[in-house]
Amino acid sequence: xxTMENRTAQVVLTITTEAAVRAxxxxxxxxxxxxxxxxxxxxxxxxxxxxxxxxxxAVFGAVEPTLDELTRLVNxxxxxxxxxxxxxxxxxxxxxxxAARVIAERRITEDGKVDWPRRPDGWYASDELIAAxxxxxxxxxxxxxxxEAVAEAVQRExxxxxxxxxxxxxxxxxxxxxxxxxRQIGTQDQVERMEAGMLPNSERLDLVYxxxxxxxxxxERYRRLTAEDACHDDDCDDPTDVEVEAGDCSAAxxxxxxxxxxxxxLLSEQxxxxxxxxxxxxxxxxxxxxxxxxxxxxxxxxxxxxxxAMTREYAATPGNLADAEWGx
Length: 328
Ligand SMILES: [Zn+2]
What we know:
The chain is an alpha+beta fold.
């Protein structure tokens, strides 16, 4: 009775009569082949792994019971495995190509939805297919994200160019309106200089603004607060270190309310219909060093002229309100 430890490792090769005869051999059946340490030492780790897998199964396809034949069978198995792996890789690559094509051809509709292309062959045309592709190959999700980014960039560019065109058209309309106004109310000298492209921009704007705000001609303009306006202490070490802030008022004194009403009454009906308005604003300058501060109020008149909001600020009666009632 043989004991386990005395046995030599074997691989049983199964030789069919058919295969043996075809190869010109006569031995057939399941024949064990003794492995040797020299043989195993000559194998690569991959080859040894295959031999190990053969220990418990009959190995079909052999034509003679030799170690050389075993090597041939091992290499055949390895070649089949490599072929399978390559095929799988090619299939994955094909998935990616198809996914890339589908993704490249889909469109983002105006409401931001994905519009997959409809194909006559119906092969790829749906979210489901992309979902399947995504499950099959994680690289699809990346391609999809890339395609989405490209589509979004295209949309963004489109929107931007539309906005730019609209802005350019509006700017052109405004420029033309300014020129027409200079011809209408400017002196002959100013018109001549404009035609020659020599009219200073400040002079042109003075004409335009004084025309638009002609109803407010008698009103005192608002003077900006400067560092000197902050009520500095005598020993303030830097009277230029100030912060100036401004905002819309959320409350008005009775006197300021009268002023707002009077200013609004100076706007024409058309201007009011176009959105013109008068806002009460607060302004404050404060010194960072001595904390001296000063406040002023203004009436900001906004008139829309050829699509452009034109504003001018006028002096308002000082307020006498608690800080909390200023608004921002
Ligand atoms: Zn100061």
